[in-house]
């Protein structure tokens, strides 16, 4: 169907997008790579000598680095487990014949549209606050001393906030996926005498596997970069107790002005994200062929 | 699937679902209620649910104290500006890949997607320094550009999946009838693509509205959108829960309402068509 004429037009129309994205990827990333090999601190103007891998060496030796990588993994892992398990249960519940389903669904997905800074502030002040927070009130009601969540369980608290934001996303995808479940298969299994639990394990879960993979991978991309929630609630603390890799790079580069170390950390973050992206791209690519 | 459902079962699952739904949305509901209280009532123990003197005073205080509308307008300009710009660049690209696919089209699509995987923090320093050198720190132009580039892959992908569903024969027929490329796009393609374009627009406005890495790192008092505006409420000054709540509601209300209309597109846009 495509004539030579339209082929040329197509190329012209594709060019701006390709060039822009290429520039967006190559230029800043190239600069980060370059900065990561310099001794470059904004507080010390003057020469920025080439130091090779020195920044990486110090970044890896920094005790905060190990902690931040571990925290990144705990944050991502904690939120993933909560949202995938919770999301599947939520999707199954919302598929039942309930009254007022539309409104209930809107209520469930609403947290996803709350901007990260707002949800972090609301949770921090109105729920986690050890004096005026609702959790402190509930604790007192049952005769427990109030617990300072953000000071004593900072990672757990952040996981709660972030999981609250992403649970609707996971649920929404599982709901969509459940709707394409083959009802003949379910009926057949009923006739064959499968119990509800067996049906769930052998039919529903395998059907959802693909949706789960997609949820895990997409959320991981976003969760590796958790930033606003930390900035507003714990500030990465106490100490570095809730600093993830993204926040560590932010602290090194924009608070301590150490461009070299920050850049080295940025490159480490890019490599980490690319490992995840590699798998995600393959799965989506496979789907494109189908 | 015609299955017998007893009334008792329906009531039971309805109760369960509503309990869960109200629990999950409780932080939002609680914030909404608190925004109508006085500061004293906002921290009352035991907490007051409905029996308080309703007031809308807090909303006025927030506007007065931190100029809400200034930041609201920044959010509007940044979210809608970056989305429209992305659409203008993406529509031709998506069109050409959907209707004149070449051997490398799939590779190009995949590569575009992979640019989305780059963590923002990996390019924080160069972008920050570039903005500084060009005097674009704390400017809306910088954010419009950056968010446009960030969302461009999603926009192209979404448009591509929508356009692909339009049968090529219709375009062929238009061409047979003597339509040139311009007319073909303007009178045949665009009317059919409007729903797809609208959904893409909606999802991207939502994503840009809530973006909180670049908006926090690259803005100060001037260009700060609502994501950054709300941070000024993070340091407590005496009793401030009611004001914080009012500011929060003002920041999320516009996008919350848009979001309710975008449930379906959300799945499609964020999974790149991998879950249907």
Description:
Chain A is mainly α and 290 residues long. Chain A has helices at residues 4-35, 54-61, 63-94, 101-109, 116-128, 134-141, 149-152, 154-179, 183-191, 196-223, 228-232, 245-255, 259-289. The radius of gyration of chain A is 24 Å and the shape is globular. Chain B is mainly α and 276 residues long. Chain B has two domains: 7-59, no CATH class; 68-270, MetI-like fold, CATH 1.10.3720.10. Chain B is built from 13 helices and no strands. In chain B, helix 4 (68-99) crosses helix 9. In chain B, 47% of the residues are buried. At the A-B interface, helix 1, helix 3, helix 4, helix 5 and helix 6 of A face helix 1, helix 4, helix 5, helix 6 and helix 7 of B. Chain A: It is a multi-pass membrane protein. Chain A: Its main location: membrane. Chain A: It is found in: Cell membrane. Chain A: InterPro entries: MetI-like, MetI-like_sf.
Number of strands of chain B: 0
Q: How many extended strands of chain A?
A: 0
Structural class of chain B: mainly alpha
Helix vs. strand class of chain A? mainly alpha
Report the oligomer: heterodimer
As for the CATH topology of the largest domain in chain B, it is: MetI-like fold
What order do the SSEs of chain A take from the amino end to the carboxyl end, as H and E? Answer: HHHHHHHHHHHHH
- Terminus-to-terminus distance of chain A: 22 Å
Radius of gyration of chain A: 24 Å
The number of domains of chain B is 2
Helix content of chain A: over 70%
State the name of the first-level CATH class of the largest domain in chain B. Answer: Mainly Alpha
Please trace the helix and strand order of chain B, writing H or E for each element: HHHHHHHHHHHHH
Number of helices of chain B: 13
Shape of chain B: globular
The CATH architecture term of the largest domain in chain B is: Orthogonal Bundle
């Amino acid at each position: 169907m495509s004539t030579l004429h339209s082929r040329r037009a197509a190329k012209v129309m594709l060019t701006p997008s390709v060039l822009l994205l290429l520039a967006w990827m190559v230029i800043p990333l190239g600069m980060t790579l370059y900065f990561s090999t310099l001794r470059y601190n904004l507080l010390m103007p003057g020469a920025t000598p080439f130091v090779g891998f020195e920044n990486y060496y110090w970044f890896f030796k920094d005790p905060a680095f190990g902690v931040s990588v571990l925290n990144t993994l705990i944050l991502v892992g904690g939120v993933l487990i909560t949202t995938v398990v919770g999301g599947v249960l939520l999707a199954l519940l919302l598929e039942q014949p309930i009254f007022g389903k539309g409104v209930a669904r809107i209520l469930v997905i609403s947290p996803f549209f709350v901007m990260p800074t707002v949800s972090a502030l609301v949770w921090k002040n109105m729920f986690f606050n050890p004096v005026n927070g609702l959790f402190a009130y509930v604790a007192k009601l049952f005769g427990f001393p109030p617990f300072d969540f953000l000071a004593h369980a900072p990672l757990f608290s952040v996981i709660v906030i972030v999981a609250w934001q992403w649970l609707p996303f996971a649920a929404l995808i599982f709901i969509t996926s459940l709707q394409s479940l083959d009802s003949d298969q379910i009926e057949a299994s009923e006739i064959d005498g499968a119990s509800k639990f067996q049906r769930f394990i052998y039919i529903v879960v395998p059907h959802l596997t693909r949706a789960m993979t997609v949820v895990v991978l997409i959320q991981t991309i976003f969760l590796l970069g958790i930033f606003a929630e930390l900035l507003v609630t714990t500030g990465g603390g106490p100490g570095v107790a809730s600093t993830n890799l993204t926040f560590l790079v932010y602290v090194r580069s924009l608070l301590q002005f150490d461009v070299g170390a920050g850049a080295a950390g940025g490159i480490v973050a890019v490599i980490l994200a690319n490992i995840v992206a590699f798998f995600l791209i393959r799965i989506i690519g496979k789907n494109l062929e189908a | 699937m015609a299955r017998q459902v007893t009334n008792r079962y329906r009531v039971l699952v309805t109760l369960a679902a509503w309990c869960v739904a109200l629990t999950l949305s409780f932080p939002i509901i609680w914030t909404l209620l608190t925004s109508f209280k006085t500061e004293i009532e906002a921290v009352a123990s035991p907490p007051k649910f409905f029996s308080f003197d309703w007031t809308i005073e807090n909303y006025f205080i927030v506007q007065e104290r931190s100029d809400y509308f200034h930041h609201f307008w920044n959010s509007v300009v940044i979210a809608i500006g970056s989305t429209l710009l992305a659409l203008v660049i993406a529509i031709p690209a998506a069109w050409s890949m959907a209707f004149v696919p070449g051997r490398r089209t799939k590779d190009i699509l995949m590569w575009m997607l992979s640019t989305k995987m780059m963590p923002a923090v990996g390019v924080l320093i160069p972008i920050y320094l570039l903005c500084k050198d060009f005097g674009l720190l704390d400017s809306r132009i910088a954010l419009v550009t950056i968010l446009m580039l960030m969302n461009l892959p999603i926009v192209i992908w979404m448009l591509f999946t929508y356009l692909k569903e339009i049968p090529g024969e219709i375009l062929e027929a238009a061409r047979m009838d003597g339509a040139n490329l311009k007319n073909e796009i303007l009178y045949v393609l665009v009317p059919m693509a409007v729903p797809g374009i609208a959904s893409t627009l909606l999802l991207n406005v939502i994503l840009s509205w809530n973006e909180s890495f670049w908006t926090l790192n690259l803005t100060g008092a001037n260009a700060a959108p609502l994501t950054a505006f709300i941070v000024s409420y993070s340091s407590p000054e005496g009793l401030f829960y009611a004001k914080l709540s009012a500011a929060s509601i003002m920041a999320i209300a516009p996008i919350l309402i848009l979001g309710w209309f975008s449930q379906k597109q959300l799945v499609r846009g964020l999974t790149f068509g991998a879950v249907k």
